[in-house]
Design goal:
CATH superfamily of the domain at 3-155: Ribonuclease Z/Hydroxyacylglutathione hydrolase-like
Strand order of the largest sheet: 1-4-5-6-7-8
CATH class of the domain at 3-155: Alpha Beta
Shape: globular
Structural class: alpha/beta
Distance between the termini: 23 Å
Number of helices: 5
Largest sheet: 6 strands, mixed
Strand content: 25-35%
CATH topology of the domain at 3-155: Metallo-beta-lactamase, Chain A
Helix content: 10-25%
Radius of gyration: 17 Å
Order of helices and strands: EEEEEHEHEHEEEEEHHEE
Length: 220
């Protein structure tokens, strides 16, 4: 099954010390060759106007989105899932073991409202392949349910979606320059070696050199 990949709205971070912290995730569109469409991380409410504009350009509506893949369950990545009530949610199985009330009475209630509103949830595990073109990597270093993705696409080659284990270019440069040598750095380097593009949750994507002839399967 072939697959097209597009970034609809880039992610970023907005903050004012002691007043406001408002991260928002990169929102990506997947189009399968049978016409089905889905999102990776539908993002936060601050992005709604930009998302609406991108939908209008492509003549998409709410019903166009049949599935949503979440890198993890944090509000800046999942908030806009409420606007796609009929989409099937793909999320790592560990999401169900979290106590969302730990985020606070108000924020915890927001998590509960969003999650309870998901009509169809498909839990996924490390090593699974979705639609025969997306490899799931369980990377629980930002949240227990966190995943990264390696996508074999028709238009962009192999795309590595890191999620929040490495969410900006600055964090990425620290890893590739060897300033960081922990398990996350090892995972990120492994994804880079298999990818043509790296997509960050809170920054612009970057094109990387991919030496392998069959990077999706990890052959060298």
């Amino acid at each position: 099954m072939n697959m097209m990949f597009e970034i609809l709205v880039g992610g970023g971070l907005i903050g004012f010390p002691d007043r406001l912290r408002h991260p928002f995730s990169t929102i990506s569109l997947i189009t399968l060759d049978d016409g089905r469409k889905g999102l990776i991380d539908p993002g936060n409410t601050i992005q709604l106007e930009a998302l609406e504009s991108e939908f209008e350009k492509r003549n998409l509506d709410i019903s166009s989105i049949e599935f949503i893949i979440l890198t993890h369950v944090h509000l800046d990545h999942i908030m806009n899932s409420v606007y796609f009530p009929n989409a099937e949610i793909y999320v790592h199985e560990a999401y169900a073991t979290k106590n969302y009330s730990q985020f606070g009475k108000i924020i915890g209630s927001v998590y509960k409202k969003i999650i309870d509103g998901w009509k169809s949830v498909k839990t996924i595990k490390d090593g699974e392949r979705l639609f025969d073109r997306i490899e799931v990597l369980h990377t629980p270093y930002h949240a227990r349910e966190h995943i990264s993705l390696i996508l074999d696409t028709e238009n962009m080659g192999v795309v590595g979606v890191l999620g929040d284990i490495c969410y900006t270019r600055i964090a990425f440069y620290d890893i590739v320059k060897g300033y960081r040598t922990d398990k996350v750095a090892e995972i990120v380097k492994g994804i880079v070696n298999r990818s043509d593009w790296i997509v960050f949750a809170h920054d612009e994507p970057i094109r990387v050199k991919a030496p392998a002839t069959d990077r999706f399967r990890g052959d060298s």
